[in-house]
Amino acid sequence: MANGAQALMKTLVDAGVEACFTNPGTSEMHFVAALDSEPKMRAILALFEGVATGAADGYARMADKPAATLLHLGCGLGNGLANLHNARKGKVPVVNIVGDHATYHVKYDAQLQSDIETVARNVSPGFVRTSKSTEALCQDAVDAITAAKGLPGQVATLILPADVSWGDGGQPCALPPQTSPAIADDATIQTVADAVRTGKKTALLLGGRALREPSLRAAAKLAAHNGIKLFAETFPTRIERGAGLPAVERIAYLAELATLQLSEYENLILVDTKPPVSFFAYPGKKSYLVPESCNVNTLATPEQDAAASLNKLADALGAADTEPKLQASARPGRPRGKLTAEKVCKALGHLMPEHSIIVDESITSGLMLNALTAGCPRHDILTLTGGAIGQGLPNAVGAAVACPDRPVYALVGDGTAMYTIQALWTMARENLNVTTIIFNNASYSILNIELDRVGAESAGAKAKSQLDISSPVTHYAQLAQSMGVHGVRVQSTEELLKAMEYAQSMPGPHLIEAVVPESLNGVKRKVLPWLLRTLPSLPRSVSTTLKKKIAP
Amino acid sequence: MANGAQALMKTLVDAGVEACFTNPGTSEMHFVAALDSEPKMRAILALFEGVATGAADGYARMADKPAATLLHLGCGLGNGLANLHNARKGKVPVVNIVGDHATYHVKYDAQLQSDIETVARNVSPGFVRTSKSTEALCQDAVDAITAAKGLPGQVATLILPADVSWGDGGQPCALPPQTSPAIADDATIQTVADAVRTGKKTALLLGGRALREPSLRAAAKLAAHNGIKLFAETFPTRIERGAGLPAVERIAYLAELATLQLSEYENLILVDTKPPVSFFAYPGKKSYLVPESCNVNTLATPEQDAAASLNKLADALGAADTEPKLQASARPGRPRGKLTAEKVCKALGHLMPEHSIIVDESITSGLMLNALTAGCPRHDILTLTGGAIGQGLPNAVGAAVACPDRPVYALVGDGTAMYTIQALWTMARENLNVTTIIFNNASYSILNIELDRVGAESAGAKAKSQLDISSPVTHYAQLAQSMGVHGVRVQSTEELLKAMEYAQSMPGPHLIEAVVPESLNGVKRKVLPWLLRTLPSLPRSVSTTLKKKIAP
Questions:
Q1: Does the keyword field hold Chaperone (chains A, B) (predicted)?
Q2: Which of the residues A4, A81, A235, B145 has the least number of beta carbons within 10 Å of its own beta carbon?
């Protein structure tokens, strides 16, 4: 007869949950022991929980099904919280299995006792459950998986007391048939179509699953037929792009630029996203970035089928047979000269193979990435959906586990890399095809901008030292080597290209530490003009306004 | 006129909060900018929030007053949760300042928006408050500091919206006079004294602040006068010990051994602690470790003055003028031969200077530490109070900031070290006098024991691989060097001694990676006899029972 853990393992595997990112402790030992009872379950050990949760996020973004995490009580969940936050904001399905003390042990308030459900609610508002008995466990698991997988995807947390896990009488359960998501109803189609037909300047803002090929193609028909502009949300969970797919312009991170991007639109149609708001609030600046005069309609919510809704709208507007405009093939040339963050992006655009997966947590260093890879062979980009840094390396682990035949590039800032640096060890252990590029500018560069932007101009020495991580400078190549990952430090563009070509030729993980100057210094004079280059399609009138605004 | 952040900074400093362990983001930029307005505030940057919170914990254990942390919204708090849990369990005062979005920005549910108060309640059940206005901010801060500092110490969380921080009209507030903690009342003294007078076999179990010198001396008078045994709780927040102080025996981690230690006592008197329970539950084993026939009385709760209560009891029992028995001076000899974890502890006992601070997170490797340092010059040991691993390195950072003139040793297992390895960078940046010793046995050694203990004996290859961190082996010396810390890898006892002597001769941080075999393999045959050596005072009758029990 199966114990709880063994029945749970079978339930998970039968429901298609075949990867578990783990950082177990004593209370999870029966779950660990049950791993061998299910050959289909792959267990990937992490040395820190934030790696496990970020990997589960990255896995699900690419596999389109949830992985499980295995975490050790409330503190393990706490360590994994930041990357679960990113998954929540990206509407990514994740099933957390959080071990807990045996039910009868809770009252003794032993060292690791804490209120796990409370912590879990922060990232799993839709599903937190402590399994009460071995008999109930597998149905609880099925409910958790169902909650995680349903649209919009979410993080579900199942708390597993040790005695529920070790108890006898576990009965595996099967997942019920999944229902298909709804399509936008006729009234919504009518409203949106009418708005388009007014002839007013219209943009579609695509988010979530609407940034995958089926939705992109449908949206591109509308763009071609009705002159609608296509925008993508600022931080896509996963965007499919490259030569042969429709191109969409991402809304900028800086509110000042996003406002400009949106300034001329009178109609905004939302698909699986919300109206753009600024990432942070700034004194005296607006949080809501859509022009007040702009008419906003939602075509499809995150609960709905974005592609089918877009196709239904295309039908209504007579765009069904329109040829969408597709991105032409175009790689940047081989970069030369002094190494900069931009050259790193250019080198990636120059070299990256088809079907690459780019995990982009490069913050300021990767601002040219989109422009420089737009015409590359088809690829996916995964981004920092929830703003909780430390997502890049773990996401790359998960993406590589989900797609072992695809090259994964993790572009990571030096500040962000350190939050979940332990991911390198898992890359080495699992021999994952991940090439990590660390932009080492020895600074929390984004904060130097933000310090200005929030109006705290008169920063003194102590304040500035809080944004300066140059003393000591971290040597990432050496750090990678210490965890078994091939690491090189490059200081010239030639060295970078050589290292990237070497990484392409050798399976397994690589880390390239690119020593680059800060991309952005002194926001007022340099950043805005520089960023303008990242938005090639900005309306000319806007460019003119902007140029006046930023003139010295 | 001061803005909120500036007034807050003055309030903190005036209340004696003079260290802030930081990992800020945009929403904290005004707090960061205000650092320069208060020369007394020292800001210590961490590359990961778990380092900041663990450092605040270690600081307060040694400084006996709280430090502040500066954390970035709910995700930053999440990353810091595990070490705040350790602080909570250790009753250590910490004041968290958690930045949040501007109050008017919350409704837009921007990327980093999450329910911060919910997360905070896990570690700050006694004080969580979101400051509502710049005018209210400093009183909120005073309330947080008061809550943190009052006995028992606790973690207080003050959530600081960006607009409350940048708003004008901040008015610094002063801390009200602190009240003295209560002393055990006459009835309690009477009850406890009566229990002692029965002549039954009696033990005092000391925890929390009762492990500092004043309480230890009072307890030792009772021990000498009334034949009372002195026990310390398993994981002391801070224990003062060494030659010239009374010695106390710590309750063992393994429930089997703790049960043996307590087996002969008929009276148990608690001072600033709870009755011992097992760390985890195990199938078929008891959680509550005190014999059922034992009479348990509480002399002083964590809210009360432990030393004064013990002295009052000593008065009642006529022990006030008794000479307490003190630990004799005795260092172990210079170790020789094959390097083992025990030899590392012996080397430390042989070499460590007076007033050393030992942060012990060595898990299985440090089991002989107490025995081998008992007669060393006076020192303090800080331990893993809440069981959330990743406490050692950050605690050492905080202890070194609090006590710049005292050598700090962090003894850390290779598994635990990786949770907050970023602490090394802060040690280098601040040039802290911390010598870290990593016991590299390439295993989650404790889990190999626990896998057996929970009854999951039939572990297969996948299960065992979850406890094996030998592929790849992490090179900690190299890892330390990558973050600017002098690191050496030692494989012999001679090399170890040389490295320790070098570290003593050179200020600043050092890391010694000691390559050791697993201390414990195969619990049934070896561990219990081995552990018996850690409990020199175990009653002979118990030893005999035990020897029979574990005979092959």
A1: no
A2: A235
> Mean of the per-residue pLDDT values for chain A?
93
What is the pTM (predicted TM-score) of this model?
0.96
Mean pLDDT within A181-202: 98
Classified as helix, coil or strand, B501 is helix
The verdict on a CB contact (< 8 Å) between B456 and A166 is: yes
In chain A, the percentage of residues whose pLDDT exceeds 70 is 93
What residues 435-464 of chain B have any CB closer than 8 A to a CB of chain A?
A: 446-447, 450-451, 453-456, 458-463
3-state secondary structure of B178: coil
- Domain extents for chain A? 4-166, 186-316, 341-532
Question: Do the domains A4-166 and A341-532 sit in the same CATH topology, yes or no?
Answer: yes
| Least trusted range by pLDDT, from A252-256, A396-400, B165-169, B406-410 | A252-256
Test mutation, B75, B421, B438, chain A, max A CBs within 10 A: B75
pLDDT in tens, B527-546: 555 566 666 555 555 556 55
| Cβ–Cβ gap A281/B472 under 8 Å | no
A305 pLDDT higher than 90:
yes
Q: Chain B contact for A427, CB < 8 A? A: no
Cβ separation B102–A281 shorter than 8 A: yes
What is the rounded distance in angstroms from the CA atom of residue A271 to the CA atom of residue A210? 7
Closest by Cβ to A482, choosing from B287, B467, B474: B474
Q: CB of A55 within 8 A of CB of A393? A: no
Report which DSSP code applies to A342.
H
**Residue B486 — left, alpha, or beta (φ > 0 → left; ψ -120 to 50 → alpha)?**
beta
CATH code for the part of the protein at B341-518: 3.40.50.970
- CA neighbor of B85 nearest in space, from A285, A116, A437: A116
Whether the CB of A1 is below 8 Å from some CB of chain B: the reply is no
CATH 3.40.50.970, domain B4-166, yes or no: yes
Measured between CA atoms, how close is A535 to chain B, in angstroms? 22
CA distance A532 to A529: 5
Is A105 within 8 Å of chain B by CB?
yes
Give ipTM to 2 decimals: 0.95
**Would an 8 Å CB–CB cutoff place A386 in contact with chain B?**
yes
What tokens does B349 get?
A: 């006992």
User: Which superfamily, per CATH, for A341-532?
Assistant: Thiamin diphosphate (ThDP)-binding fold, Pyr/PP domains (3.40.50.970)
Structure tokens at A298: 């939602």
pLDDT, mean of residues A256-277 = 95
CA distance B88 to B154: 6
Residues of chain B neighbouring A45 (CB-CB closer than 8 A): 465-466, 469
CATH number of A186-316: 3.40.50.1220
pLDDT band at B333 (very low <50, low <70, confident <90, very high): very high
pLDDT band at A459 (very low <50, low <70, confident <90, very high): confident
Inter-chain CB pairs, A–B, below 8 Å = 325
Taking the alpha carbons at both ends of chain A, their separation in whole angstroms is 78
Instruction: State the residue for tokens 């101009």.
Output: A457
Judging contacts by C-beta atoms under 8 Å, the chain B residues touching residue A387 are: 75, 110-112
